[in-house]
Automatic annotation (TrEMBL):
SUPFAM superfamilies: EAL domain-like, Nucleotide cyclase, PYP-like sensor domain (PAS domain). Keywords: Membrane, Transmembrane, Transmembrane helix. Residues 388-520 form the GGDEF domain. It comes from the Bacteria. This is Cyclic-guanylate-specific phosphodiesterase. Residues 529-779 form the EAL domain. The chain crosses the membrane at residues 14-35, 47-72, 78-100, 107-125, 145-164, 176-195, 215-237. Residues 12-198 form the MHYT domain. GO terms for cellular component: membrane. Pfam families: EAL, GGDEF, MHYT.
């Protein structure tokens, strides 16, 4: 060690030694910077950085060596051979290329192995360069110092490469370059201490020390320029690469559909437009803020893994996002950049929530659906105590199908929505409702006594029975209620619901009872009724129905004035069924509209084929009259069947005017304008028959059978009949008496001027082809004779 110090102190020019140190420090800084590029660059670009760095490192070693040689003062003239001098530069650069190339590989100890090669490259360059040193003296080498110089160079080379790979920031530059300087300098001065020079006589032909210095100075200056040029090129390329990467990142970030932000440390360096939109801030306001301004504990999210997070926004709200974190070493200052990629998942979560809601709730009313109701109630019943009591109330909206048919699905939906609202408003916290079918609802409630269930059903009946307004029309859809109780009517929810359903159907068939409690005896009758409803629907669809016709007579001249079409059902098992067995059922279950259309179409088709040109009368139900586009439907049926409008007579009853008189009158007027005759049926049985005659100009009045039954022996009936005849005469409206069954009734009618009659006296309703031939009158309205 003392020999090395003496070598530096007494055999060197301090000024040139200082210059060598400066050159070595600058070159080492450039070399370390480029070495770090090799470590942090993942692509094949690291080989380019390695090559440039190797040139800088090798040139630094060579320049340091020869400047230090200029500082060396052995006391004898020296000279430098050109070949070995140039060869030493080549050895230095090639050795450094190998060292940087190995260090850039991706195996475990690449950096230390590269450091070993770097130390050997310094050693090889030094001792190759010393072969160019010539003087008139005997030179001897102390091998101990030679070995020590190589060991120092290798160890310090390994440390320099290790620190460059591991260190971050400016510390990496300082420590890595410092150790690299030590590796070069320790090798040189320890190697120079190993050299022993014994002077001999000088030769006049040898290059003098001054001339040798000039030559080396020129070479060193050139190589120094190479080092500086390499550094400048590296700086330029680095800036270009950074600028290109930044520009590409910005383009990618702005074109990305996801929000992106770049963070260094915990500070946001930049963000794209989508991120700004998501947080409701401008990009300028985002830059410089902490990442945790927007995402709490952002550092806890794992890299390379999608995580759910809440993005805090400027307005105080939070946006659900999917977050991906990626760390990139895109700069050489040691501090990585963290890229936050965020995707707005609010719509996806809303869709998932909607799907989850639809899986349990009805989308129209917001009530539970059938599956959710069954699951929830069964769970309650399974945990029910011995003293627990519950009620299941099945609810079915009466005439809901008629509302759908008459006013359209929008009106039907309005009824369902309003029903759902009223159920929610009426029920308490321990009660809940569900929609389990088209117009079927169910309520589940904990109760103490049976009376609680009845009172609840009565309250629901009042609420659901209120009118509903829709586009200027008052809709009425009262409900029928069936009640089943736990545990007496069943312990499973399916059993309870089925029994409540049976009770509800019993209530629907009752004329004066809207609420019915389940009892075991009603099962068979309800099931038979349901079966009959299904069979009737099938019968309408498959033409099991037939039309019978009853003759309408003009009595004085015994001519036929027309026929009334009456429907019969030819059941495949039960045979011919009279109307009273299935028409009320059709009215109660909403099939009356379908049935009425079938009768009207069939009557027109058959009448169009009769050899006679007499009119046919068809009864209309209130559901048909108030159905949307009914007048157009009648017109289409006439066109399709070929029946002239003046041969069709439509009969309406007082009930057709009850729900919506204005609409009924408007539809009847359209039909009358087509040439269709309109008659009032069952006159005298309602409370507002006279009001009907005032409201619309009917073409005929048909007296109900109840006014004819005892007309031959009841003075009150005779008085009412005479009054009606006078009313018809005053209004110039013909009158037809229904239900004439005997000669006494017929004689009384003729005596008082009623010439149009209908009833069993002239025969029961039959198929048209089975009717007895009768003398026919022309198609005209037959009035009252004197």
């Amino acid at each position: 060690m003392l020999r090395v110090i003496n070598c530096i102190a007494f055999a060197h020019d301090f000024a040139l030694v200082a210059l060598a140190a400066v050159i070595c420090a600058v070159g080492a800084a450039v070399s370390v910077h480029l070495l770090k590029k090799v470590f942090v660059t993942a692509s094949t670009a690291r080989f380019a950085w390695g090559f440039i760095g190797a040139i800088a490192a090798g040139s630094t070693i060579w320049c340091t060596h020869y400047v230090a040689m200029l500082a060396f003062e052995p006391g004898v003239p020296v000279a430098y051979d050109f070949g070995p001098t140039l060869l030493s530069l080549f050895v230095a650069i090639v050795g450094c290329v190998a060292a940087y190339g190995i260090a850039g590989e991706r195996f475990a100890y690449a950096a230390p192995v590269g450091g070993v090669v770097f130390g050997l490259a310094i050693s090889a360059m030094h001792y190759t360069g010393m072969t160019a040193f010539s003087t008139r003296a005997v030179m001897a080498w102390n091998m101990n110092y030679v070995v020590a110089s190589v060991v120092l160079a290798v160890l310090l080379g390994v440390l320099a490469f290790y620190l460059t790979q591991r260190m971050r920031g400016i510390r990496r530059i300082v420590e890595g370059a410092g150790v690299m300087v030590l590796a070069i300098v320790s090798l040189h001065f320890t190697g120079m201490a190993a050299l022993e020079i014994t002077p001999l006589a000088a030769s006049a032909t040898e290059v003098t020390t001054a001339e040798a210095r000039d030559m080396i100075a020129i070479a060193v200056a050139g190589v120094c320029l190479l080092v500086l040029g390499t550094g400048a090129v590296a700086y330029f390329l680095d800036n270009q690469v950074r600028a290109f990467a930044t520009l590409r990142f910005r383009h990618l970030a702005e074109s990305a559909v996801d929000g992106m932000a770049v963070v260094r440390g915990n500070q946001i360096l930049g963000a794209n437009s989508e991120f700004a939109r998501m947080v409701k801030m401008s990009k300028a306001d985002i830059v410089g803020k902490s990442a945790e301004t927007f995402i709490d504990q952002v550092g806890q999210y794992q890299e390379g893994k999608l995580s759910a997070a809440d993005l805090k926004r400027a307005d105080g709200t939070c946006l659900p996002v999917e977050l991906a974190v990626q760390t990139e070493q895109v700069s050489d200052d040691g501090q990585p950049l963290t890229i936050l990629a965020l995707r707005d998942i609010s719509q996806r979560l809303a869709q998932e929530e909607k799907i989850s809601f639809l899986a349990q709730y009805d989308s129209l009313t917001g009530l539970r659906n059938r599956a959710s109701f069954l699951e929830n109630t069964q769970s309650i019943l399974e945990w029910a105590g011995k003293e627990s009591c519950y009620a299941v109330i099945a609810i079915d909206l009466d005439r809901f199908k008629e509302i759908n048919d008459m006013y359209g699905h929008a009106a039907g939906d309005k009824v369902l929505v309003k029903t759902g609202q009223r159920l929610k408003e009426t029920l308490a916290a321990h009660q809940f409702a569900a929609r389990i079918g088209g117009d079927e609802f169910v309520v589940f409630s904990e109760i103490e006594h049976q009376d609680d269930a009845i009172h609840l059903a009565e309250r629901l009946e009042r609420e659901l029975g209120q009118n509903i307004e829709h586009e200027g029309v008052v809709l009425k859809s009262p409900a029928s209620f069936g009640v089943a109780l736990y545990p007496e009517d069943g312990r499973q929810i399916n059993t309870l619901l089925n029994n409540a359903d049976l009770a509800m159907y019993r209530a629907k068939t009752s004329d004066d009872q809207q609420i019915c409690l389940y009892d075991k005896g009603m099962d068979d009758s309800i099931r038979k009724r349901r079966q009959l409803v299904d069979e009737l629907r099938l019968g309408i669809q498959t033409d099991q129905l037939v039309l019978h016709y009853q003759v309408q007579m003009n009595v004085p001249d015994e001519t036929v004035a027309g026929y009334e079409a009456l429907v019969r059902w030819h059941h495949p098992e039960k045979g011919l069924m009279p109307p009273m067995t299935f028409i009320p059922l059709a009215e109660q279950t909403g099939l009356i509209g379908m049935l009425g259309e079938w009768v009207l179409r069939k009557a027109c088709e058959e009448a169009a084929g009769w050899p006679s040109k007499l009119p046919v009368s068809v009864n209309l139900s209130p559901a048909q009259l108030t159905a949307p586009n009914f007048a157009e439907q009648v017109q289409d049926i006439l066109l399709e069947s070929g029946l002239p409008p003046e041969r069709l007579e439509l009969e309406v009853t007082e009930s057709s005017f009850i729900s919506d008189q204005k609409k009924a009158i408007a539809v009847l007027q359209k039909l009358k304008d087509m040439g269709i005759a309109i008659s009032v049926d069952d006159f005298g049985t309602g409370y507002s028959s006279l009001a009907m005659l005032r409201a619309f100009p009917f073409d005929k009045i048909k007296l109900d059978k109840s006014l004819i039954d005892d007309i031959d022996n009841n003075q009150r009936s005779k008085g009412v009949f005479r009054a009606v005849l006078s009313l018809g005469d005053a209004l110039s409206v013909p009158i037809l008496a229904e239900g004439v069954e005997n000669k006494e009734q017929l004689s009384f009618l003729l005596e008082h001027g009623c010439h149009l009659v209908q009833g069993f006296y002239y025969g029961k309703p039959q198929r048209y082809e089975m009717l007895s031939p009768q003398k026919e009158t022309p198609v005209k309205v037959v009035g009252i004779k004197g």
